[in-house]
Design goal:
This protein is an alpha/beta fold. It contains ten helices and eight strands. An eight-stranded mixed beta sheet has the order 1-8-6-7-5-2-3-4, with helices on both faces.
Length: about 260
C-alpha cells in the first residue's frame, strides 16, 4: 500500500489518553550506563500511565549477557533475552542470510554490527529485526499478546528530549498497523535488495518492495503476528530498513511521519 502522510497527532489538553494495550520495547545488546539510566526513567514514566515497558537483549555473546545483568541490577522489570542460535532454530530461513548480508556489504557489516567490539562476531539479529521482535512477542503469555494493541520498537541509542510518555500518547489515537519514517520504494542501488529468502523474493516483486527507517517504529499486535507467520514460513528479508506489508492487512495501514 502507498504511505499515508501524517502530522504529529495529539490528544489535546484535558483529554484522557489511557495507554493500556500500548508497549515500548527497546532492543539492545551493549548499552552504556547512560542508556541504562535512560531506560529506567522511561520505565517509570510509562508504567505510571499503564503502558508496559520491555527490553529485549541479544545475549549471543558475553557482552550481551553482561548487558542483561546490568539492566537487572538497574531493576528493569521486563527483560527478554535471546541468542542467534535460538533465532536460527526458530526461523531456519535465516541460516542462508549471513552470507548474503556479508556479500551485500562487502563484509563491512561485521564492523557495523559490533561497533568494533573486539572478539565479537556479529549476530544475525543486527539485520533481521523482525525475527528478533517476534522472538520477544512469542515469549509473552497468550493473554498478554491478546491485550497488546500497539508496540513501539526503539533501538537503544535513540534519545528523546521530552517525556517519553508524551511521545507514546501523541500517537495513541492512531489505529494503523505501522508508523514509521521514510517509507518509500527501494532503489536499484539499495545494498540490501537481495538480502532476502527465495520465498520472499518470489512473493514480493522488486517494484512492490518498500524500505523505511527502523530506529523508531510502531507495530500493531496483529501486524507482528502476521509478520511472524510469514517469517516462520520462510518469507524473510533484511529489515534493517525494510518491512514487508502483508497482503492480509486489508486497509491502508501505514503512516509515514517526519
Amino acid at each position: 500500500w502507498p504511505p499515508v502522510t501524517c502530522s504529529l497527532m495529539s490528544c489535546g489538553d484535558g483529554q484522557s489518553c489511557p495507554l493500556s494495550g500500548h508497549c515500548l520495547l527497546v532492543r539492545t545488546y551493549n548499552p552504556t550506563l547512560t542508556m541504562a539510566r535512560k531506560l529506567v526513567s522511561w520505565q517509570q514514566e510509562l508504567e505510571k500511565r499503564d503502558c508496559s515497558f520491555h527490553v529485549s537483549v541479544d545475549t549471543t555473546h558475553m557482552v550481551g549477557k553482561k548487558a542483561a545483568d546490568l539492566l537487572q541490577d538497574y531493576r528493569i522489570r521486563n527483560i527478554h533475552t535471546y541468542t542467534e542460535s535460538q533465532m536460527l532454530e526458530t526461523f531456519p530461513g535465516l541460516k542462508r542470510m549471513k552470507k548474503k548480508v556479508a556479500d551485500a556489504s562487502e563484509d563491512k557489516w561485521k564492523k557495523w554490527a559490533t561497533n568494533d567490539v573486539k572478539g565479537v562476531e556479529p549476530s544475525i539479529a543486527w539485520g533481521f529485526h523482525i525475527e528478533a521482535i517476534c522472538m520477544w512477542h512469542s515469549s509473552l503469555s497468550k493473554s498478554k499478546r491478546q491485550q497488546l494493541q500497539f508496540v513501539w520498537v526503539f533501538e537503544d541509542d535513540v534519545g528523546f528530549t521530552g517525556k517519553i510518555v508524551d511521545f507514546v500518547k501523541d500517537y495513541s489515537s492512531s489505529k494503523v498497523d505501522l508508523i514509521t519514517k521514510d517509507y518509500a520504494p527501494i532503489k536499484q542501488d539499495w545494498p540490501w535488495r537481495e538480502c532476502a529468502s527465495s520465498a520472499f523474493l518470489d512473493r514480493i516483486p522488486f517494484e512492490k518492495r518498500y524500505a523505511c527507517g527502523e530506529h523508531v517504529q510502531r507495530f500493531s499486535g496483529r501486524f507482528i503476528s502476521a509478520l511472524k507467520e510469514l517469517s516462520l514460513s520462510g518469507k524473510t528479508t533484511m529489515p534493517r530498513t525494510s518491512t514487508e506489508i502483508d497482503e492480509k492487512l486489508k486497509k491502508n495501514s501505514i503512516e509515514s511521519s517526519d
